Amino acid sequence: MEEWRLLNIEVPELAAMNLAIDEAVFVAKIEGAVPTTLRFWRNKGAVVLGRFQNVAAEVDLDLCRERGIQVVRRFSGGGAVYHDLGNLNYSIAIEKTHPLLNGLDIVGTFRVFSFGVTEGLRKFGLETVFDPPSDLLVGDKKVSGNAQSRRKGIIFHHGTLLVHADLDMLTRALNAPEEKAKTENNGVSSRKRPVMNVWDAIGRRIGIDQVKEALQQGFEKAFGMKLVQSMLTLKEKETAERLYANKYSKGEWNFWR
């Protein structure tokens, strides 16, 4: 049975470091230094922009400054998302030619990755539907959004799952002043749609660790592999530190458009 590396590594207070770790894993996978990897992580109060988005058109920056919400930009595309400790993020680094994905278009790969989350949430009696190009819905409400980056034959997949996030703050933080949104949004716009927490969908509270365990089992079942708990390599740690210092902690990266 194929084995994938499982990373439970997060720096919630430093969203920029979380993104630096993700890119370090991506780089290591491109270099062939690590196996296929699944990572779980969270941010504490952060807006994460897609790589090509206009920050002024997507984010209420005044509110973020007032509430101490971090604003950072990831290296993958897609729309802006709000993260807090009730939002579980997952990242996957995998070869484009992996048997699960070989020959699929981009939407097809999003659909395949969604199978792991769908299987995991079934453990709580919850059924989700894949909504192209990249969302998972319960009814007509979004519980998970996803984005990707591709480089040198490797796919890096970013996903989010709303477990018990502050949906009011999500709406407010991702609601840029209307006049700015109209005049400055010349990048990739976020797809606005109603959202729902897993807690509300299943009608009871569950812990983040329970969700992680369910998703781990869901990915293993969906993909016929075994996840093995591991840590970052020394080189990945060094790469993450460098990316944090020179890129993700810098305003010129996070606010460049």
Write the layout of secondary structure elements.
Layout: E1 2-8, H1 15-30, E2 37-41, E3 46-49, H2 55-58, H3 61-67, E4 70-73, E5 81-83, E6 87-95, H4 106-122, E7 129-131, E8 135-138, E9 141-151, E10 154-162, H5 167-173, H6 178-184, H7 198-202, H8 208-223, E11 225-229, H9 234-248, H10 251-254
Parallel strand pairs: 1-2, 1-11, 3-4
Antiparallel strand pairs: 2-6, 3-5, 6-10, 7-8, 8-9, 9-10
Describe the structure in your own words.
The protein is of the alpha/beta class. The chain has one domain (2-254): Bira Bifunctional Protein, Domain 2 (BirA Bifunctional Protein, domain 2, 2-Layer Sandwich), CATH 3.30.930. It is 38% helix and 25% strand. It has ten helices and eleven strands. The protein has helices spanning 15-30, 55-58, 61-67, 106-122, 167-173, 178-184, 198-202, 208-223, 234-248, 251-254; strands at residues 2-8, 37-41, 46-49, 70-73, 81-83, 87-95, 129-131, 135-138, 141-151, 154-162, 225-229. The strands form two sheets. An eight-stranded mixed sheet has the order 7-8-9-10-6-2-1-11, sandwiched between helices. Strands 4-3-5 form a three-stranded mixed sheet, with helices on both faces. It is globular.
